């Protein structure tokens, strides 16, 4: 055991890459922490216990080979570590940055249970692939022999991009249709740069362009082509639009100017980061500078909004959430980062009304208490009578989550079946929708979820699409043979 490079968790403490001081990092939208040095990455990877049943892998939606690439990192075999990491994930450096590791791999690390602090898996994952990009180890997509069939992908988010890459590698012609002017979906326009700098996304997209994947930007299905027209163009279709319809608040005054949707706010901020002209930001409505900001919600989108407002120079930023810290859906690490940066959390509180004149002036709220658990196991918040209070607000951002849009109506495809939640109904064996040759994956099937689950769904549906297209080609060949005979 003297030469054993692993199992160092007793003598080596947990150490994340150092974060910049809060005062420095709120001055820009750069990522708040650098990546590990080579020595530090190997040292932290060496803490892995190499357990026989790796709970980190089993709780990762992609089932990444985490203990194996941790060991390779410790041994200095970084290229092999990258290749192993890349074997199960199309975007390992993105997952390393934005996955809620505290709820997935790191939250289920065996040494975390023993009180030694989890292995810093996400930070090592980021280090491995960033190093691979710098050293030229990230190879072009290896495109297989041309199959003479094409795939249309609707949506350029993580699920769509994953399918585009995997189907192109199998030799299919791939066209991606997206409503935005840049690919990436929420990776590009929803997640702020301090969590995911945009060149990290852009280099992944460029790799797909270099592989011959054709991107149709500013393309709306239903406006520029119906779903049936796209089906005529391609041998198979994937719908991977995500869910973008914001959940509403029902309260007096909710329609007042100055009360905005989270995604509108975040998209405007990210567009300014690209240098775009954004009138709604430039003229003030979506700019938090000098304003008293109230964000309503407790998920990761709410955390993105409060931390963005701080960087825009808000006079104050408060996050209003109806449950307590222990029951919030967002990452605890993000909450801690927000508090360090000056965000005030108003726990166990919910809005009752919004007041003001020509624009919103305040939020009238009420204290909540947690009652009995609901069907999901979370304790249900209930109003505490007589506990009303008011918060000054010049800008209110609604961040209560997202639901599916009406795709059958938007796409001109009323026969496209949906569930009672509005998500697309699929056969879970084939991952096909109610329409022949039309597949679906990601949030539009499972509801608002994580990027890592979208990648997993994309990986799974690519296998199903490949099987479908091979069978379709065989039927065509058989029919041609019968005609020739």
TrEMBL record:
Gene3D superfamilies: Alpha-helical ferredoxin, FAD/NAD(P)-binding domain, NAD(P)-binding Rossmann-like Domain. It is an enzyme of class 1 (oxidoreductase). This is Glutamate synthase (NADPH) small subunit. Residues 151-458 form the FAD/NAD(P)-binding domain. PANTHER family: GLUTAMATE SYNTHASE [NADPH] SMALL CHAIN, GLUTAMATE SYNTHASE [NADPH] SMALL CHAIN-RELATED. SUPFAM superfamilies: alpha-helical ferredoxin (SSF46548), Nucleotide-binding domain (SSF51971). Keywords: 4Fe-4S, Iron, Iron-sulfur, Metal-binding, NADP, Oxidoreductase. Coiled coil: none annotated. GO terms for molecular function: 4 iron, 4 sulfur cluster binding; glutamate synthase (NADPH) activity; metal ion binding. Its cofactor is [4Fe-4S] cluster. Its EC number is 1.4.1.13. The lineage of its organism: Bacteria, Pseudomonadati, Pseudomonadota, Alphaproteobacteria, Sphingomonadales. It comes from the Bacteria. InterPro entries: DPD_II (IPR028261), FAD/NAD-bd_sf (IPR036188), FAD/NAD-binding_dom (IPR023753), GltD-like (IPR006006), Helical_ferredxn (IPR009051). Residues 26-136 form the Dihydroprymidine dehydrogenase domain. The keyword Lipid metabolism does not apply.
């Amino acid at each position: 055991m003297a030469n054993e490079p692993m199992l160092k968790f007793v003598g080596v403490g947990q150490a994340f890459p150092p974060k910049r001081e809060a005062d420095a990092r709120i001055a820009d939208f750069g990522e708040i922490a650098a990546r590990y040095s080579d020595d530090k990455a190997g040292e932290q990877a060496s803490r892995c216990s190499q357990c026989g049943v790796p709970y980190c892998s089993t709780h990762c939606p992609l089932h990444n080979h985490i203990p194996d690439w941790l060991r390779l990192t410790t041994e200095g075999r970084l290229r092999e570590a990258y290749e192993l990491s890349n074997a199960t994930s199309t975007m390992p450096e993105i997952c390393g940055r934005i996955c809620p590791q505290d709820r997935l791999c790191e939250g289920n690390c065996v040494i975390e249970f023993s009180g030694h602090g989890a292995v810093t898996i996400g930070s090592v994952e980021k280090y491995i692939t960033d190093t691979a990009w710098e050293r030229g180890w990230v190879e072009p997509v290896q495109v297989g022999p041309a199959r003479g069939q094409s795939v249309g992908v609707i949506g350029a988010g993580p699920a769509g991009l994953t399918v585009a890459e995997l189907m192109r590698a199998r030799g299919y012609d791939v066209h991606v249709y997206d409503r935005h002017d840049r690919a990436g979906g929420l990776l590009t326009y929803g997640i702020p740069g301090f969590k995911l700098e945009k060149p990290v996304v852009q280099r992944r997209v460029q790799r797909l362009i270099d592989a011959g994947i054709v991107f149709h930007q500013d393309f709306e299905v239903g406006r520029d082509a119906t779903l049936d027209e796209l089906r005529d163009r391609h041998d198979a279709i994937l719908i991977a639009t995500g869910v973008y319809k914001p959940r509403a608040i029902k309260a007096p005054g909710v329609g007042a100017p100055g009360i905005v949707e989270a995604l509108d706010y975040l998209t405007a901020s990210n567009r300014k980061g690209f240098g775009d002209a954004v009138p709604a930001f430039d003229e003030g409505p979506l700019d938090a500078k000098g304003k008293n900001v109230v964000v309503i919600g407790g998920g990761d989108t709410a955390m993105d909004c409060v931390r963005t407002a701080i960087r825009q120079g808000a006079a104050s930023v408060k996050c209003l959430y109806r449950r307590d810290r222990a029951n919030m859906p967002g990452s605890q690490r993000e909450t801690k980062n927000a508090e360090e940066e000056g965000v005030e959390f108003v726990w166990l509180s919910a809005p009752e009304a919004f007041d003001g004149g020509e624009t919103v002036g305040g939020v009238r709220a009420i204290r909540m208490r947690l009652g009995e658990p609901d069907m999901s196991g979370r304790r249900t918040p209930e109003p505490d009578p007589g506990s009303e209070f008011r918060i000054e607000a010049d800008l209110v951002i609604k961040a209560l989550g997202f639901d599916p849009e009406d795709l059958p109506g938007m796409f001109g495809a009323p026969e496209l079946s949906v569930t009672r939640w509005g998500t697309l109904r699929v056969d879970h064996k084939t991952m096909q929708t109610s329409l022949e040759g039309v597949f679906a994956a990601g949030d539009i099937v499972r509801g608002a979820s994580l990027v890592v689950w979208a990648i997993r769904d994309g990986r799974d549906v690519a296998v199903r699409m490949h099987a479908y297209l091979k069978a379709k080609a065989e039927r065509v060949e058989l029919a041609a043979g019968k005609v020739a005979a």
